[in-house]
Q: What sequence folds into this?
């Protein structure tokens, strides 16, 4: 009788452990997915920033060129 009880207990314990492991795995997977999404968003933001910077640089260059042109005209 006691052995049966202990057996069932050990079985239930092992089952519980397995369930916990599965849950952990699922959580890990979810975390990974979230991380990937965050990384993607960050990359997109960086790209946008780079584009903006490039545009600004172009504008600055243009303005300097124009200034030179104007200076030459006035001289």
A:
């Amino acid at each position: 009788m006691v052995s049966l009880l202990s057996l069932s207990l050990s079985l239930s314990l092992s089952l519980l452990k397995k369930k916990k492991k599965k849950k952990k795995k699922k959580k890990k997977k979810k975390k990974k997915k979230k991380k990937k999404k965050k990384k993607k968003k960050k990359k997109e933001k960086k790209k946008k920033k780079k584009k903006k910077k490039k545009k600004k640089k172009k504008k600055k260059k243009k303005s300097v060129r124009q200034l030179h042109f104007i200076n030459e005209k006035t001289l």
The two ends are 111 Å apart (CA to CA). Residues 32 and 38 are 10 Å apart (CA to CA). Residues 2-74 form the longest helix (73 residues). The mean pLDDT is 72.
